[in-house]
Design a protein that fits this description.
about 400 residues, alpha/beta, Beta-clip-like, 5-stranded mixed sheet, about 15% helix, about 20% strand, Pre-SET_dom, chromosome, methyltransferase, transferase, Histone-lysine N-methyltransferase
Length: about 400
């Protein structure tokens, strides 16, 4: 019974504390060994349908210490109270995730009931028949009549109205056009046009993404959400089921932890969202100061505080979402910066009926098994004694990581 109580306490201990505890006895050492193997075996702590292993051939750090969440969660803890995080326990069997199970964006704030689609079962953005139909020759005419009666679904589209996903649920915005940090313009497949030219007056025109106080300008799309009548398996809910491809967290000598593909990833494939704690702007600034202080004293490797901003066309109003994945987050917290733009495309995703946007990361090009996943943190660089060196290793490397004040 006493050992079972200790197992509950161990969930709050980091790797060094567990190592010290293992010295107290043989039984305790066995429990610590088992818990360490579990933590190193799956960085998602059993909360994704796909296991994400940890690989470290560089030093003795077995795993990063943080609490995993597949989706953004509202934080009720201030920076002063935020000294420890709790690891999850193994979950069995694994099942397909639904965002509402984790208090994700679909449960945050008030739902806008009139904003969603009325599609039965699953949506059709191109006028095709929705639902699971067994299409045969005898049913062709009947399906054609049904197709003509179906309304065109407004979900699963870019802000300019173009269809966001293809038949394989891959993003159709694939290549950044020019300097994404300054223009935010993207090329679309199949002659869809430039999304920056098609946005209407009611859409957000400028989007600043700040990761560790760094900024880039991503594209934007709308998915089915809590206000929609369609099923959770709808093809217009691509980003709402957690990590969709095989990944691994790998330790490197200069960058620290990094995220790599554990399979070939096709161009346009959704990889993951940037998940963490949703905090107020005041709390975000306090945490930023705390993280900077820890780094100056050498007690911190870095933060994963991201600020997502949406500006209205007038430029007078904006929506700011602060996501801190430093102590509570998902696999996206391990994605490093690349000065050449990287191989991932950041994209703002709004769920129909949900007032809070989120950030999705898609494969901008084909990614090979074992390749590191990266994206550009931004263009703004603040030189000085606090500037952090960049180790992206690309021909476009500027030598320091982008940074700006919040």
């Amino acid at each position: 019974m006493e050992l079972e109580v200790w197992k509950l306490v161990m969930l709050w201990l980091d790797s060094q504390e567990l190592a010290n505890l293992a010295q107290t006895g043989r039984a305790m050492a066995e429990v610590v060994r088992s818990l360490t193997a579990y933590r190193a075996g799956d960085v998602t702590q059993g909360q994704e349908t796909i296991v994400v292993p940890i690989v470290n051939d560089v030093d003795g750090c077995r795993y990063p210490n943080f609490s995993y969440t597949p989706f953004c969660q509202i934080s009720l803890i201030s920076s002063r109270e935020h000294s420890r995080v709790k690891w999850g326990l193994p979950k069995s069997p694994r099942r397909k995730l639904v965002e509402a199970d984790f208090g994700g964006a679909v449960t945050m704030g008030s739902t806008l009931p009139d904003a969603g689609c009325k599609c039965p079962d699953t949506c059709s953005t191109s006028g095709n028949v929705s639902g699971n139909e067994d299409i045969g020759r005898k049913n062709i005419e009947q399906l054609r009549r049904k197709r003509r009666k179906l309304p065109r679904c407004g979900c699963g589209r870019l802000v300019g109205g173009q269809i966001a996903y293809d038949g394989a649920s891959r993003l159709r915005v694939l290549t950044k056009c020019g300097n994404v940090q300054s223009t935010g313009e993207y090329d679309l497949e199949e002659g869809e046009g430039n999304c920056s030219q098609d946005v209407d007056d009611h859409a957000q025109m400028t989007r600043d993404l700040t990761n560790q106080e760094q900024a880039v300008v991503p594209s934007s799309l709308i998915e089915c959400g809590p206000a929609c009548a369609c099923h959770s398996d709808c093809k217009c809910r691509v980003s709402q089921h957690g990590v969709s491809v095989k990944l691994k967290v790998v330790r490197s000598r200069y960058k620290g932890w990094s995220l790599r593909a554990n399979q070939d990833i096709g161009r346009g494939t959704f990889v993951c969202e940037y998940a963490g704690e949703l905090v107020t702007s005041t709390e975000a600034r306090e945490r930023h100061r705390e993280y900077d202080s820890l780094m100056k004293w050498g007690n911190w490797q870095g933060s994963a505080l991201l600020v997502l901003r949406e500006h209205l066309p007038s430029g007078r109003a904006s929506v700011r979402v602060n996501i801190d994945a430093t102590r509570v987050g998902n696999v996206a917290r391990f994605i490093n910066h690349s000065c050449d733009g990287g191989n991932l495309l950041p994209c703002i995703i709004r769920l129909a009926g949900c007032p809070i946007p989120k950030l999705g990361l898609f494969a901008e090009r084909s990614i090979f098994d074992g390749e590191e996943l990266t994206y550009s943190y931004g263009a703004g660089v603040t030189p000085g004694q606090d500037a952090r060196p960049c180790f992206c290793g690309t021909s476009a490397c500027l030598g320091t990581l982008p940074s700006e004040f919040t």
